[in-house]
């Protein structure tokens, strides 16, 4: 008859590989998703349309390598809205209510000129 320690060792022997491959799978999925989105964006035409800055937001990630992503929601003439990730420099210059010409390719922000 096994001891309690043998039982815990058996459970860890099963759970560790499941957790390892689960995390590895999520990592690979993230990389593949990014590659496919990049390819889809490259196939899209570059568009330049009149737009208005509606909202802005930041997404901060902690941990050992702290990073911040910046997003801006634009509204085009048809009333449709799209949220695009923008570089920090653009984010700081944009103000809600700004109107100008938005250039984008798929989900990729290119520039905004007032």
From TrEMBL:
Keywords: Membrane, Transmembrane, Transmembrane helix. The keyword Transmembrane helix applies. The chain crosses the membrane at residues 12-36. InterPro entries: DUF2500. The keyword Transmembrane helix applies. This is DUF2500 domain-containing protein. It comes from Priestia koreensis. The lineage of its organism: Bacteria, Bacillati, Bacillota, Bacilli, Bacillales.
């Amino acid at each position: 008859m096994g001891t309690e320690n043998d039982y815990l060792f058996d459970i860890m022997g099963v759970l560790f590989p499941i957790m390892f491959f689960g995390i590895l799978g999520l990592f690979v999925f993230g990389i593949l998703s990014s590659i496919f989105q990049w390819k889809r964006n490259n196939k899209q035409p570059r568009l330049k349309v009149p737009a208005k800055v509606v909202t802005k937001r930041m997404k901060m990630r902690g941990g050992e390598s702290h990073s911040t992503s910046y997003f801006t929601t634009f509204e085009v003439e048809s009333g449709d809205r799209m949220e695009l990730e923008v570089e920090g420099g653009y984010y700081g210059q944009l103000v809600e209510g700004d109107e100008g010409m938005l250039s984008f390719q798929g989900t990729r922000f290119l520039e905004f000129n007032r």
